[in-house]
Design goal:
Layout: H1 4-19, H2 24-36, H3 38-51, H4 65-75, H5 93-101, H6 103-116, H7 126-129, E1 131-138, E2 143-150, E3 155-160, E4 170-177, E5 184-188, E6 195-198, H8 201-204, E7 212-219, E8 232-239
Antiparallel strand pairs: 1-2, 1-8, 2-3, 3-6, 4-5, 4-7, 7-8
Helix pairs in contact: 1-3, 2-3
Length: 241
């Protein structure tokens, strides 16, 4: 018999499937469920109806040429003579741009859907379900990354909002700064794709609305001392506990 916790877990997976943040195996598992389980198909369709319109207000943004070049090189493909049409949700550039800047929008959308669909999610809001978020902003006011924390499943998803250049041999490292404590390294994060971080128990107990997330410039392998050694380039408060 399915429990309310099972429904919450499934609903979270369906939302993450629509947002495109699942890994390849998890995404394939959801796609198999859609084929054989009408409830799963209905849940995914509902998330698509509620989340996809949020991208409509974001203008198209073409990726830099080097992005396509790297993709072609990794797949050993020749450059296409003409651009191919992009009609799939997964190829929607507006959706990916929204994902990079929309942690708070995701939370708001989840609240709306969970209120409207009590059968699919028994909790009235993502806050009560154990979500926190942070917008990690550079000194010039530009959002560098957004972070969404799923406390129930002990993981954090960090998404780059704007491209950030680093000199060769340097990389961004994410830090949790609890009030009155030294920074705790969460690891080196990607500049151009989402990073998923497992939240150990000692990290979960330190997440609060008084804590901060910060990004410093470190060697590619991370800080050699366990503390920031380079400049702090972005920071943001955690909200939604």
């Amino acid at each position: 018999m399915n429990t309310p916790a099972d429904h919450r877990h499934d609903d979270l997976r369906y939302a993450e499937y629509v947002l495109g943040v699942l890994d390849a195996d998890a995404r394939a598992a959801v796609e198999r469920e859609i084929q054989v389980n009408p409830q799963a198909a209905a849940a995914v369709a509902l998330w698509q109806r509620h989340l996809t319109p949020l991208a409509d207000d974001v203008g198209d943004m073409a990726p830099a040429p080097y992005v396509w070049a790297r993709i072609r090189d990794s797949l050993q493909l020749a450059a296409p003579a003409t651009p191919q049409p992009r009609t799939s949700l997964w190829d929607n550039l507006r959706l990916w741009r929204w994902l990079g800047i929309g942690a708070s929008m995701v939370a708001a959308a989840c609240v709306a859907v969970m209120f409207a669909l009590p059968r699919l999610a028994t909790t009235p809001s993502v806050v009560n379900a154990g979500y926190m978020a942070a917008t990690i902003t550079q000194d010039n006011g530009v959002t560098g990354w957004t972070a969404t924390m799923d406390l129930q499943h002990a993981r954090m998803i960090v998404v780059p909002a704007t491209p950030t250049a680093f000199v060769q041999g340097r990389a961004p490292e994410l830090w949790l700064i609890p009030p009155g404590e030294k920074p705790i390294s969460l690891g080196v994060i990607a500049r151009d794709k989402p990073t998923t971080i497992a939240l150990r128990t000692q990290l979960l107990t330190r997440l609060s609305a008084q804590a901060l997330l910060a990004v410093s410039v470190e060697p590619v392998g991370g800080s050699p001392t366990g503390q920031p050694t380079g400049p702090v380039m972005a920071k943001g408060a955690i909200t939604g506990a």
